[in-house]
Amino acid sequence: MTNVVMVSPGFPLEMAYFTRALARTGVSVIGIGDQPVEALPAEARDHLAHYEHVSLADEGAVLAALHGLARHASIDQVECLWEPYMVLAARIRESFGLPGMTVEQTLPFRDKELMKQVLDAAGIRTPRHASTSTVQGVWEAAERIGYPLIIKPIAGAGSADTFRVDSAAELSDVLPMVRHVDVLSVEEFIEAEEFTYDTVCGGGDVVFENICWYRPRPLQARSHEWISPMTVALRDIDSDRLAEGRAMGRAVLQALGFQAGFTHMEWYRKDDGEVVFGEIGARPPGARTVDVMNYSTDGDLFRTWAEAVVGATPEPLVKAYNAASIFKRAEGSGHITRIEGLDGLLARYRDNVCVLDLLPVGAHRRDWRATLLSDGMIIVRHPELDALIELGDRFARDLRMHAG
Ligand SMILES: Nc1ncnc2c1ncn2[C@@H]1O[C@H](COP(=O)(O)OP(=O)(O)OP(=O)(O)O)[C@@H](O)[C@H]1O
Ligand SMILES: [Mg+2]
């Protein structure tokens, strides 16, 4: 039997569904993670053949635990879908001489500067960019790249410490706010609409493709609390307006030599039609977008991923719907006191609502800056894009949560 090590099999929660899907392909799954075994979600715990509770931050301890295990059972494959430990997973592979992504292949997915260097060499259009660890370096990069520009951490997530800078005066204001960041990426600001290109690959082939449209752009969504951000998984990914971005996505995977697993890329489409690369991770998109893609296909991408990585042939999925997640932020601070407009929306759109997951009255608000999930989310779907946007906008505008 094939033994597959799953790094962090129960955290974040979504990992548990991947773990279960992996086990259901017929392999034996060995979990290794930070969580005590009792804290593992049942979906993970019930499908693990064995679990090692080790600090994932301690590479030596991880390798020691797995080499200890390997005296009793062979270790054949290592999977990891949780971004912070992708390099660790690659080190485990190298330590056991296993196939799959090496450290060298993984680093361009983790380091935004290296990522763009590899893609530049392959002729992909990236924003003009530089990375630097000094204030002087930021000023030099700004001079060379020009304004407007964007400053962000080289290994950032969730738009943390990310700033648009329109002038030298603004740059002076922003620099003190990013002083704690070790290495900064300075980039040409791309004025454009923002999309994703997400895939599941197996054996070097793309077996599932998805494009999401962000409404509005993530940086805007994360700068204004009143916005209810929306991520729309598009049904018609064959449309002309997406063709170049999709082709770029394919070229990026090729340039990075990606073989098997989930990928999540972000790209920009300017008004003049030019497409520009944003970033890519060798993992699924976050904020429950796997669920959104599942509702757009009536598929099970946890299973598609698992089959793809064990070398089986996943059933092709058909996009039947446009599906969107909408994230809500309550007005006011403290505890949720009232939810307004929900009954009317449900009376009208009940058949379109796939998930309704709002914090209940009495719950304390979440930090909307720290988690896109904010105070709750809804997933809706509709075969027609115009109709989906209309109903999504209704949930964005007419559903109001209040806190106090
Ligand atoms: N060069 C750029 N031009 C215009 N906007 C940009 C640029 N770089 C980043 N942004 C904006 O900032 C957001 C966050 O940047 P990026 O995706 O690189 O970082 P991140 O923190 O990894 O984001 P996330 O984890 O939310 O995907 C982007 O989605 C985009 O809206
Ligand atoms: Mg991003």
Structure description:
It is a single chain. With about 400 residues, this protein is of the alpha+beta class. The protein folds into three domains: about 5-100, Rossmann fold (3-Layer(aba) Sandwich); about 130-190, 2-Layer Sandwich (Dna Ligase, domain 1), CATH 3.30.1490.20; about 195-404, D-amino Acid Aminotransferase, Chain A, domain 1, CATH 3.30.470.20. It contains 14 helices and 19 strands. It has helices at about 15-25, 40-45, 60-70, 85-95, 105-110, 110-120, 135-145, 170-175, 220, 240-255, 290-295, 300-310, 340-350, 385-400, and strands at about 5, 30-35, 50-55, 75-80, 130, 150-155, 165, 185-190, 195-200, 205-210, 210-215, 230-235, 260-270, 275-280, 320-325, 335-340, 355-360, 375-380, 400-404. A five-stranded antiparallel sheet has the order 11-12-15-18-17, sandwiched between helices. It has a four-stranded parallel sheet with strand order 3-2-1-4, sandwiched between helices. A four-stranded antiparallel sheet has the order 5-8-6-7, sandwiched between helices. Helix 1 crosses helix 12 (about 300-310), helix 3 crosses helix 4 (about 85-95) and helix 5 packs across helix 6. The longest helix has 17 residues, at about 240-255. The model has no long low-confidence stretch (mean pLDDT about 95). The structure holds adenosine-5'-triphosphate and magnesium ion.
